[in-house]
Amino acid sequence: MRSNNFRAHNFKDLTGKKFGRLSVVKYYKTIKKNNTYKSIWKCVCKCGKIVFKKRDLLISEDTKSCGCLATELLIKRNYIHGMSNSATYESWKKMLQRCNNKKLIRYKDYGGRGIKVCKRWMKFENFFKDMGERPKELTIERIDNNKGYFPKNCKWATRQEQVNNQRRNVFLEFDMKKLTISQWAKEKNIPQSSLYFRLYYAKNKMNIEKALTEPVKK
What we know:
Helix content: 25-40%
Distance between the termini: 73 Å
Order of helices and strands: HEEEEHHHHEEHEEHHH
Number of strands: 8
Strand content: 15-25%
């Protein structure tokens, strides 16, 4: 059954039609913008993602997928450089996917919160020129986690450096130094669990200075 909006504006039924990778499932709703009515259609992409697209974008073929096609074409264009099996290329490819592929679970922590790859790095050759070959056991890291991927904000880092730079980390400032709880635990030779307990769970919670300096009872 079609809604009153659908009948009133006499939109051509697109149900079952295909546009690129998108298959139209059904009519969704109509919106009015600048005195013009536009119908919205529920579509399923070949990759499995559900999206809602305007009729004019589908008909004009400006939209051919949920966004996965653009990422794949970008990667394909850069396949000729001879490094497609290298660790550097793998890091570049995953960087693009985190910021562009909405189907990935980790997308919400990257593209989903506005983290983007700079225009220059959309081409692998430029990324390789700026970052060089990825050192063994290192991965790409953003210096400022609230900014995107661009030359001045990225470096090759160890896994521990990445863990220390995560947004969810709790930093403590003491004795003119700012470190994560895990870093302080290592420096002060205090079990990390004990430090968390002192700061957050003990009946008589300690301040930072006391938590970091009081000897641990055996």
